[in-house]
Amino acid sequence: MDTDGGSGGQGATLRAVSSAVLAVTRHLSVHEVLQVIVRAAAQLLDAQYAALGVPDDAGSFAEFVVEGVSEEQWERIGPLPRQHGMLAAMLHGDTPKRLADIRREPEFEGWPQAHPVLKDFLGVPIRDGEDVIGIIFLANKRRPGGFTEDDEELLTLFAAHAAIAVTNARLYEHNRELTVVAERNRMARELHDAVAQKLFSLRLTARTASALAARDPVRTVQELEQVERLAAEALAELRAVIFELRPADLTDGLVSSLRKHVEVLDRAHETTVRIAADEAVVLPEDQEAVAFRITQEALYNALRHAGAQTVEVRLGTRDGQAVLEVADDGSGFDTSAAAAEQQNGLGLASMRDRAYSIGGELTIDAAPGQGTTVRLEVPL
Asked: Cα separation of 205 and 167, whole Å?
């Protein structure tokens, strides 16, 4: 790739930036956008290694993504030396840094034994106004001679475009979180109103039964049966309110949180609710939150609408993907286009949107009388 010519270099920059912009328009997470930016920067400058660090408020990195290092190498490297060395020097500086041989610098220290050998180095901050929201690091240019002044200018230009991509991704995620909260509150209000209506009907029916007790025993029995039915419905609606308002606690990780949630539902419902999960499945925090939320909605649908005897949550891996399933042996439903209205009533559209927001895919296997399986697949 020729970065010596102005028009050629800028054209390459725009092509590389388009990958990051595409990631944003596909509603991917901030972490995925950072990965796209790192990959694009490495290709743009023909670098063997690339990384992008996002500073936190404690003088370290809140997030750090790399390109050119395999998972096995990354495991051998271990924790990053985030509080000292060249990374720290870049954190506390606000200007690009271009070096012919990073190993000769005073800041070159604390590098793990398994770390790849680095020589020529280029680091450029990603700015949003006066704030540094990230730092792009490149090392070991594939062409002889190391990084040039033109390379530094090109990466600086790219970083300005990358700042827009990162900021837009953050805004999108924040907006998505607000939308989820608003939807959750709306559902909670609707459930609250439904409980109030059930209790009001229950009270009137009980009064009717009391008035009829002396002169019409048969009608009284019918009214008391209605009282029992309304009481059961009110209890179910009340459980739904608690279910909807109860905040998801993922501090112990997705698997542990799912186990606790399933245990509570199994005690609260006549339906048997169980889980089979691979403890080794770990996703990024934002993906785990969405996966948990989708599981909640699928369980709610199964327990409220399916009439199932058993509901099972399954979590494992297949073909490089995390696979999360909620399967029931209930009534099932028609998945054809003609049944779209029923599906929307089950919240399947919002579940698919949530899956899409983390780069995953949601599929529904169902048929009348044959149960339902809701399946979320997320690339690892």
From this structure: 57
